[in-house]
Amino acid sequence: MPGPRGLVQKPKNMKKTALRFISEIKPWRKQLILTIVLSAVGVLLTVFGPMILGMMTTSATTSIAEGKGILWDEIIRLIVILLLLYVVSGIIAYMQGFILTRISAKLTKKMRTQILEKISRLPVSYFDNVKIGDVMSRMTNDVEAVAGQLSNTINEIVTSVVMIIGILGMMLFISIPLSLVALITIPVSMILAKRVAEKAQKHFRKQREVLGALNSKIEEDFTGQLIIKANTHEEASIDEFNKTNELLCESSWKAQFFGSLPFPITHVLTNVAYVFICVLGGWFAILGKITIGNVQAFIQYVNQFNRPITQIAQLSATIQQIAAAAERVYDFLDADEESVETGNLTPILAQEVIGEVEFHDVSFSYDKEKTVISNFSAKIEPGMQVAIVGPTGAGKTTIVNLLMRFYEPDSGYITIDGKPIRDMKRNDVRKLFGMVLQDTWLFSDTIMNNLKYGAGKNIPDNEVRKAVKLVGIEHFIDSLPKGLNTVIDEDSDNISAGEKQLLTIARAMTQNPPMMILDEATSNVDTRTEQMIQDAFSRLTKGRTSFVIAHRLSTIRNADLILVMKNGNIVEQGKHDDLLRLNGFYAELYNSQFSDDE
Amino acid sequence: MLVSAVAIQAYGVLRLPTLMSQIINQGIVINDGAGDMGFIIITGLKMLGWAVLSAAGALLSSFLSSKIGAAIGRDIRDEMFRKIMSFSISEVDNFSTASLITRTTNDIATVQQTLMMMLSMMLRVPIMAIGAIAEAVALAPDMTWILALSVGTLIVFAILILSLAMPKFMIFQKLVDKINLLTRENLTGLRVIRTFNNQGFEERKFDKSNSELMKTDMFIGAVMSLQSPVMMLIFNGTSVLCIWIGISHLTFDASYLGKMIAFMQYAVQVIMSFLFLTVLFVMIPRASVSAKRIREVLKTKPKILWKNTGGGDRAMEPTVEFKNVSFKYPGADENVLIDVSFVAKAGETTAFIGSTGSGKSTLINLVPRFYEATSGEVLVDGVNVKDYSSKGLMKKIGLVPQKGFLFSGTVKSNILYGVDGGDIEKRMKEAARIAQSEEFIEKMPEKYDSRIVEGGTNVSGGQRQRIAIARAIAKNPEIYVFDDAFSALDMKTDKILREALKPVTKNSVTLIVAQRISTIRDAEQIVVLDKGKVVGKGTHLQLLKKCNVYREICRSQLSEEEFRKELENAGA
Questions:
Q1: What's the burial of A191, exposed, middle or buried (CB within 10 Å: 0-12/13-18/19+)?
Q2: CB count, 10 Å around CB of A133?
Q3: CB spacing of A124 vs B191 below 8 angstroms
Q4: CB-based contact B452:B411 (threshold 8 Å)
Q5: What are the start-end ranges of the H helices in A334-479?
Q6: What is the separation, in whole angstroms, between the first and last Cα of chain B?
Q7: Which residues in chain A have Cβ-Cβ distances shorter than 8 Å to B397?
Q8: In whole angstroms, what is the distance from residue B368 CA to residue A88 CA?
């Protein structure tokens, strides 16, 4: 994900998250310990490298000075040892990397699976309050940040720490005064770098804010371009854009510049230390306090010392980021689930249900302050059609939510064929209903598999064909390049909204449930398709108990029971004529639909 | 300037090993090991000077590259935004709004970031590499083959790893997309999945892709884990070779001691530079994809060009006339509109009805010249829309699109979006009253100054639509264009609103695209479209009598009984 770098998100409870994360990776603790040991050994081996190289130099220079020429036996022995060291440590490093990436991949998979399974265990109500994008980003960015960076981070921590200790040991061993010179610059450069980094943080934050503002401006203006054009606001819009764009330019160069400052600062300090070491080392060598080879080795150690230190400095930010991401994943995994179903559940079979539904004194509220349905009772005989009407936003889907047990009533209960649904398995209850909603959800697969979705893979293909014929979309499906085997994409443009709706009807038909829930709202559909949908609906509801979120007059007129909703409440119930006679909200609603009627 | 800053930085760094080798050769080893302390200190001071100078160069170059990078980013963004604002709807459709948004946000961000990296690295890395090679060659010409060998091995290895991992990377990306798709489906289809009890099925499907992804991930991991150990091996091998060869020279040239140590450090610089280069080569393809997507937009020429002047004052009797208008989307085979002609007069409502794909929305978009008629003429107040300036034409038109779109700001800024001057306050309230929004706006905490967030999501869909209608009314246009603007309202509000609109539209042309018969039955003129052709023109009753398509539409929306009654009224 491209975005401004350098911004650290802080976790809320680092310790708790860390403990949980550790328990999460427990299954791999043996491999993890092994990799830690391996990398410690590997790094320690390489630390001897410069020392041995220095020994070679010393051996050569002294033997030449003594006039003995180069002692090749000794040199070659040292070279063989060195090469062995490097090769062995290389193999060890590879083994360690190999194991860690495997653990990483497995952990990523595990976390993804956990999130997906969590999605299917969470109550529907949870998703009414969160954005899809939010859950998506936990699944993608956060899992990636946690599990994906695990291997790198563990690797870096271990190698950096071992390297710092190892190099420090070697430096101290070679010369304590030289080590002191080298070490003095480290805290100085770290403090300076930290100061600058803090300043840079401020600019990064500013940059992110401005970038956010600019991106929303872009999104808004491109989405509303029609309106901008219709009001010839282009120039004003460009001016506004330019102001923010200028601000972004300002803050982004500052962020970039201050963000890169630590590099030259630490660099100049390292170089200063380097110079001092050269001078001091030279002096000591003249005094004979130190061999020439050790000066050479020491210089190499100083050059190598810098890297693990900056790595460790950056690590704290990385770890915080990982913890923050892990926390977001855990927050999601810890959300309250649908209650576990235990005890004696009434078994219920779709084939045996006749479809008598009764509401017994049901009360319900989405939040405790506002009761949505209070003491609602109604008996729906098998095969009856119930119409739910009311203006937009009146809460017509509440009834559906209760029937399908997406939500549970606060008091009272609902029975099907005389048995309370709260004593049944949620899945069993849901199986009793076919549902065609306004939101025509199809998944990316063939039409055939989509239509079989509810009924299971075992249903014969000709059943599907029968449903297709009944809904009247045979011709449309035949016109597609691969017929029933045509794949529907996420944004299939080869299929219109109306056709999608017809497909969901065919899906419900294939499922053949004893009861139906339908939403008639079909705003973006042309009149002919509308006619087809309506015909299909009446075929679907025939002989089945059905609940229809009604938008058509014919539906309400023929309904056996009308539930009139307003502001989330059921305000009236009864048959069309009775309700008209009541001259209440229903009558008002009904009469407003035709201007010069009657 | 940037180049010289980088050069100073690089040169400074590169001086150090040579100076150090002088310390060893002329400071320590000289005088039979007695050394020359004065020389050591002078050389040390020189080194300090170069280190500081190099840091100053680094500061300057990073200052310049940040400024240049940010400025280039700004300019691309600016050019992009202007370009897209000049697009007509068909160019926007071509790219899709979502894609234009990503191109202007993510793609430019990627390019800018790469640019900033390149500015500082692209210059520094080659300068460092060339400088280090030059220094190394000057120092010890007979050891250069070591450099060639290690760099060569490095490149071969990098190519090997990339060619092994790249194909898998592609597969990896595809699988990640698949996982995202499946997750999204699970979230959007939550209710459906539960209704059909298919959680288990979905989980298995997910698990399959998830496992594949894990395996690919492991393979890539196994290959990429090779990278760092092998690199280290090349690094260390180079050091060993340097010392070995250096030592073998020592017998006949004592100055090789310092040279050898300095050479080792140059070798490190060279290898590091080549490592950076390979990183750059990985980054460039990504950025070049983005750059290509940006260029595509910038290269597109808007098809509709406006005159600078044109369009007069408010007409007394505004009209909209279509004369044999046909329209074809660019690149399409079939016409969306075929030979459409009608006249819409002031004080009358002209409604358009027909099934999806009948072309009614396209038709209405020709009036504000969002699209250009392929043949025929679109006349506003008797003048071809091509002869207007954009301002001249737009000020005559009040448009309400299908989806009520609001800008972030306040209720007020939204209603007054198209207004420039006059008694603003009064106009705003009047427009809100007619659009049936007064009641809910007055109930909002800060009334007309209440905030509207991006996308207008803090008001309901119906309210959004009503504010959008108020925006058109406040403009007091000659021509009202309602593109299916009423279907988001419930029937009751729809009716009251249209009733309230009548007095304001009595000197204006009103064009309405509608789905509901009830919305348009009172219109003075209804134009029935079918597959781009006008198949009927007239009032509700006339059309019921003579137009088959219209009768079909009515039948689908009314009950049997009502339909019969309607037909009787029409005398059919």
A1: exposed
A2: 10
A3: yes
A4: yes
A5: 397-403, 426-431, 447-451, 461-471, 474-478
A6: 87
A7: 230
A8: 75
Residue with tokens 């500061």: B59
Low-confidence ranges of chain A (pLDDT < 70): 1-10, 343, 367-371, 391-395, 439, 454-457, 489-497, 521-528, 552-554, 567-568, 591-598
Position A582 scores a pLDDT of: 81
Reference A79, options A112, A57, A104; nearest CA is A57
- pLDDT higher than threshold 80 for residue B152: yes
Instruction: Give this prediction's pTM.
Output: 0.68
Q: Do A454 and B196 touch (CB under 8 A)?
A: yes
Q: How confident is the model at residue B423, as a pLDDT?
A: 66
Helix, strand and coil content of chain A, in percent to the nearest 5, comes to: 65, 10, 25
Residues of B in contact with A127 (CB under 8 A): 187, 190
Write out chain B residues lying below 8 Å of A75, CB-based: 244, 247
State percent of chain B over pLDDT 90.
1
DSSP of A220-265: HHHHTHHHHHHTT-HHHHHHHHHHHHHHHHHHHHHHHHHHHTHHHH
The residue extents of the domains of chain A are 8-175+301-339, 196-289
| More confident position, B534 or B122 | B534
Shortest Cα–Cα distance, A256 to chain B (Å): 6
Mean of per-residue pLDDT scores for chain B: 80
> Sign of dihedral through CA atoms B505, B508, B513, B519?
positive
Instruction: List the beta bridge partners of residue A565.
Output: A570
Position A226, amino acid: L
What pLDDT is attached to residue A5?
39
Among partner residues A50, A57, A554, which is closest to B257 by beta-carbon distance? A57
Mark yes or no for CB contact B51/A274 under 8 Å: yes
Q: What are B479-518's pLDDT values in tens digits?
A: 888 887 776 677 677 778 888 888 888 888 888 888 777 7
Q: Is the pLDDT of residue B96 over 80?
A: no
Left, alpha or beta for A420 (phi > 0: left; psi -120 to 50: alpha)?
Answer: beta
The dihedral formed by the CA atoms of A237, A243, A249 and A251, expressed in degrees to the nearest 10: -130
Provide the pLDDT for residue B551.
80
CA–CA separation, B24 and B258 (whole Å): 5
- The reported pLDDT for the residue numbered A91 is 92
Structure tokens at B432: 């809100």
How far apart CA A60 and CA B21 sit, in angstroms, is 17
Q: Give the tens place of pLDDT for each residue, B396-430.
A: 888 888 777 788 888 888 888 877 766 677 788 88
**What Cα–Cα distance (Å) separates residue B24 from each residue in A279, A294, B43, B85, B188?**
10, 12, 11, 67, 72
Compute how many other C-beta atoms are within 10 angstroms of the C-beta atom of residue A213.
13
Set of chain B residues whose Cβ sits within 8 Å of the Cβ of A516:
none
Burial of B34 by CB count in 10 Å (0-12 exposed, 13-18 middle, 19+ buried)? exposed
Nearest to A2 by CA among B92, B117, B299, B95: B117
Amino acid, res. A277: I
Buried b (16+ CB within 10 A) or exposed e, A261-271: bbbbbbbbbbb
DSSP element (H, E) containing A342: none
Place of tokens 């993890």: A32
Helix, strand, coil tally for chain B in percent (to 5): 65, 10, 25
Report the 10 Å Cβ neighbour count for A80: 10
**Which of A195, A204, A196, A218 has its CA nearest to residue A253?**
A204
The CATH-assigned architecture of domain A8-175+301-339 is Up-down Bundle (1.20)
Domains of chain B: 2-166+255-299 (1.20.1560.10), 305-396+477-572 (3.40.50.300), 404-456+464-475 (no CATH)
Average pLDDT rounded to a whole number, residues B550-563: 73
